[in-house]
Automatic annotation (TrEMBL):
Its EC number is 1.3.3.8. Its cofactor is FAD. Keywords: Oxidoreductase. This is Putative tetrahydroberberine oxidase. PANTHER family: OS08G0158400 PROTEIN. Pfam families: FAD_binding_4. One of its GO terms (molecular function) is FAD binding. It comes from the Eukaryota. It comes from Rosa chinensis (China rose). Residues 1-173 form the FAD-binding PCMH-type domain. The lineage of its organism: Eukaryota, Viridiplantae, Streptophyta, Embryophyta, Tracheophyta.
């Protein structure tokens, strides 16, 4: 593997253009990093000489509730996006992933699956415009890049240019959503439940997202069934009981909350204040959480 001679951290778009033009002239490859969550390290590893353009400084978010849209720069995290939407309205959301520290740049260019995707599709399905720097250092928007390139950047990965920002379509959510959670052990027939879930999960009403996580606890195998329902608890329980009666789900397995609180719940930070999403890395609460995790790992 090559080491990189430079990490460029642009503060404005012209610096991204300069980095692209210079690296092209010098015959050096570019790796683009928004928030560095790539599972294979594609944003910071290469076999050829390369530089990293790291976009973490380009992270502003402009939410326009009246027009049901938002511009988000690539270096913003999903948590920052969700928080900024919730600051403006409790009844709008964006359908993207559950991990608040993932970057908008990498996530949306690869698709983006989250808890409301059954109703609203992938994050990339909800992009209505974008600004990119192309191979020649030009800044293009949807109109100037044309529909073919605009199609490619929404799910086709990272090789079409540097995404500077996305314009997103916001989607409506009710003021109260319901999250439910039931865990079954191997002794309770977890395998049977998993089989049933596989057969019904994609046929449920689109307001209901029901996922399963296989794990282990107390020397046994567990399957956790977690759900998000776009509505109140009584309806959530009714829909799950109708479609998956074997689960024996009751309202005591569920909690009503706002959509932004459900974001924290999905990220296993349910006790925390949504304000931590606004600046995830800096917030005192998340620092405490990280420190406690580090201590646990010692
Ligand atoms: C803990 C964790 C939880 C996750 N949860 C979910 C989830 O709930 N749903 C889901 O769908 N996915 C999830 N993912 C996957 C995640 O969406 C992808 O790995 C995503 O590509 C990460 O984006 P990033 O900007 O943080 O990563 P980066 O490593 O910065 O980038 C990922 C890829 O996109 C390219 N790229 C980044 N920014 C740009 C840009 N501005 N222009 C062009 N190309 C760019 C990079 O070169 C690289 O190839 C998760 C990943 C992790 C590690």
């Amino acid at each position: 593997m090559e080491t990189f001679p430079a990490i460029i951290t642009p503060f404005d778009e012209s610096q991204v253009q300069a980095a692209v033009i210079c690296s092209k002239k010098s015959g050096i490859q570019i790796r683009i990093r928004s928030r560095g969550h790539d599972y294979e390290g594609l944003s910071y590893v290469s076999r050829a000489p390369f530089i990293i353009i790291d976009l973490f400084n380009l992270r502003s978010i402009d939410v326009d509730i009246k027009n049901e849209s938002a511009w988000v720069k690539s270096g913003a995290t999903l948590g920052e996006l969700y928080y900024n939407i919730a600051q403006k309205s409790k009844v709008y959301a964006f359908p993207a992933g559950t991990c608040p520290t993932v970057g908008a740049g990498g996530h949306i260019s690869g698709g983006g699956v989250g808890t409301i995707f059954r109703k609203y599709g992938l994050a990339s399905d909800n992009v209505i415009d974008a600004r990119i720097v192309d191979l020649n250092g030009r800044i293009l928007d949807r109109k100037s890049m044309g529909e073919e390139l605009f199609w490619a950047i929404r799910g086709g990965g990272s090789s079409f240019g540097v995404i500077l920002a996305w314009k997103l379509r916001l989607v409506p959510v009710p003021p109260t959503v319901t999250v439910c959670d039931v865990t079954k052990t191997k002794e309770q027939g977890a395998t049977k439940f998993l089989l049933k879930w596989q057969n019904i999960a994609d046929k449920l009403p689109e307001d209901l997202f029901l996922h399963s996580v296989v794990g282990s606890s107390d020397n046994t195998i567990t399957v956790e069934f977690g759900s998000l329902f776009l509505g109140r608890v009584d309806k959530a329980v009714q829909v799950i009981q109708e479609n998956f009666p074997e689960l024996s789900l009751e309202s005591s397995h569920c909690s009503e909350m706002s959509w932004i609180q459900s974001v924290l719940d999905s990220a296993d930070c349910w006790l925390l204040d949504p304000r931590i999403l606004g600046d995830f890395a800096e917030a005192p609460a998340i620092q405490l959480l990280l420190q406690s995790k580090i201590r646990l790992g010692d």
